[in-house]
Amino acid sequence: MTDPDIARGTKVFIGGLDERTRKEDVIDFFRPAGNVESVWIARAPPGFGFVTFEDARDARDAVHDFDGLQLMGRRVRVELATAYPKDKRKRRDRDHDRYRDRDRDRDRYY
After folding, report:
1. Which of 1, 110, 3 lies closest to 59, judged by CA?
2. Which pTM does this prediction carry?
């Protein structure tokens, strides 16, 4: 089931957050981009969160204008949110390749 905010294009991922970052810090950071509907910050593990804007254009502008800027002394990554984490897809592909290579190596010795 897809998150409706992701489907509407109003949700952005923000990574590289300091563990002391508060919801208010994120709202203040994105204030110039447009109206923020909600903010969720991960605590375990810390370092990332999601911001939902009222308008998809504001979310796209936030990605374009805020990616790579500093928030509380840390360079943050801002991307449109997707249904699946990019890192997880890469890891799954890498793990699949590793197991396939192991099977090939085993076949050589038998």
Report:
1. 3
2. 0.75
